[in-house]
What we know:
Elements: E1 9-13, H1 16-26, E2 30-34, E3 37-41, E4 47-52, E5 62-67, H2 71-80, E6 99-100, E7 109-114, E8 120-125
Parallel strand pairs: 1-4, 5-8
Antiparallel strand pairs: 2-3, 3-4, 6-7, 7-8
InterPro entries: Glyas_Bleomycin-R_OHBP_Dase, Glyas_Fos-R_dOase_dom, VOC_core
Domain VOC: 5-126
Pfam families: Glyoxalase (PF00903)
Amino acid sequence: MLTSTAAFSGLGVDDLAAAREFYGGKLGLTIDESPAGLTLELPGGGTLFVYESPAFTPAGYTALNFEVDDITAAAAELKAAGIELERYEGLPHDENGIVRGKEANQGPDIGWFRDPSGNIISILQS
């Protein structure tokens, strides 16, 4: 049915310049630019196409996940870059803003943050 040479995901934003600075400058991802938007080269070989959308609404769910080897170190690096982890009511966050699911056998250790457009992104350690 779908025979293609590649597949990729897309993510809308309300400010492409701010997205370029955030994803390239703060997160350190390699970015290929085109008139249509930004292609982010993700760890592990995937890509994400980021485009400016005139009818933009932030993703109300986790739109992008980064699996890391050391979530405490990753949270500290984000904080040093001026990125704060979200704290959601009803979840047991530690002092770094991380939900420690592994300790309770309830999933990975995870923390969430937002891009400049409000899309939700996570760091997680399985």
